[in-house]
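Hey, quick one: can you model this chain's 3D structure?
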Amino acid sequence: MAKPTLLVLAAGMGSRYGGLKQIDGLGPNEETIIDYSIYDAVQAGFGKVVMVIRKSIEDDFKQVFYRKYSGKINIEYVLQEIENVPEGAAYHPDRVKPWGTAHAVLMAADAVKEPFCVINGDDFYGADAFRQMASFLTQQKNEDTAYCMVGYQLARTLSDYGFVSRGICKTDENDLLLEVTECTQIKRIGSVICYKDAQEVNHPLPDKQIVSMNFWGFTPAYFKDLKESFGKFIRQNGNNLKAELYIPTVLSELIREKKASVKVLSSTAEWFGVTYKEDRSYVVDRLKTLTTRGIYPSPLWNN
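Sure thing. Here's the predicted structure for all 303 residues.
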């Protein structure tokens, strides 16, 4: 049975962070958050890493990661560029914003031939989350359309320094995902977590609301449906300068059409990430604490 692949979405521009947070050294020995994800994935039994990046940052990524992982795990790179759209599709020439996380995953279709896990390159997910994911994926066949995600409680995923975007999850009694609603302006106001809608109206959300942090488990069967969804999206939104297609949007449609199921896995893992530059000190402290407690070795990888 093939080992699952870790697909890292790392093509983000980091505009709110002020730089390439994906390669920022945050650990005690300048480890990146991606380093911790790869370490946890290897320990959980993953066999390969594929990173989705942009051509403009390719050299930076290879300089940081190539020698570090030589002989430890195979790393491949695929590029997410605006022009990577279906043949014949048109888009506005002034477009500079990437097409979204669904497009990023689609870019890896030729590189991933086994069940795989999708994560953000700037999020720390925790070892238990990777163990849960690996356990699920190793039971799936390539043609299966039974997918999964690791969910986190909303209150444990906020930033003290501004709004965050989260996928609000609705599940049934069997922990199967019914739908995901992408909310892009979530923050705590006083003691209440709220999201702001398009009319600038705040709506309350429960602290324990399960949200998606882009920790998904798929099989290669997902790429066929994803290609169809993106083709439809680009035909409808090619001239929109800001429209993006998100992973949860595609999944919600597949669930409604009964083409796929998504199991929401429970995990004891801790999540944290860097959305804003001000988040950096907290993440540095957490990684230092986890290292001091012996959860991770120091340095993380011995070259």
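One thing worth noting: The CA atoms of residues 168 and 181 lie 5 Å apart.
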